[in-house]
């Protein structure tokens, strides 16, 4: 087993609507950041440093596919994945 197996992988992290305020200021215009993450990190672990209120993490998508709340603590990502999070959307 080589040391490269534990090398960080790069993903795109996108936040939408009011959640963009949780991104670093330089990333808010495009509503996304490129992140180097541990391949063993779960979605919850990747999101945790951004301090998103749990009640606002409503719709979680990986490459456009919904991730149910029960899978977010164990689901890991692959290099190149896009993790997108939407808050609850109020409509009328």
Q: What's a quick, concise take on this entry?
A:
Helices cover 5% and strands 26% of the residues. It has 92 residues and is mostly beta strands.
Can you describe this structure?
The chain has 92 residues and is mainly beta. The protein has 1 helix and 5 strands, in the order E-E-H-E-E-E. The protein has a 5-stranded mixed β-sheet, with no helix packed on it. The longest helix has 5 residues, at 43-47.
Helices and strands in order:
Elements: E1 9-15, E2 32-37, H1 43-47, E3 59-62, E4 65-66, E5 82-86
Parallel strand pairs: 1-5
Antiparallel strand pairs: 1-2, 3-4, 3-5
Query: Treating each run of at least 4 consecutive H or I residues as one helix, how many helices?
Result: 1
Number of domains as seen in the coordinates: 1
**Order of helices and strands, N to C?**
EEHEEE
Share of helix among residues?
under 10%
Number of strands: 5
The largest beta-sheet arranges its strands as 2-1-5-3-4
C-alpha-based Rg, rounded: 14 Å
């Amino acid at each position: 087993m080589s040391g490269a197996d534990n090398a960080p992988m790069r993903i795109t992290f996108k936040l939408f609507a009011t959640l963009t305020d949780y991104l670093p200021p330089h990333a808010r215009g495009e509503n996304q950041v490129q992140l180097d993450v541990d391949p063993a990190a779960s979605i919850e672990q990747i999101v945790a440093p951004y301090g998103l209120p749990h009640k606002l993490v409503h719709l979680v998508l990986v490459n456009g596919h919904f991730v149910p709340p029960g899978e977010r603590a164990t689901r890991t990502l692959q290099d190149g994945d896009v993790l997108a999070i939407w808050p609850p959307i109020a409509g009328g």
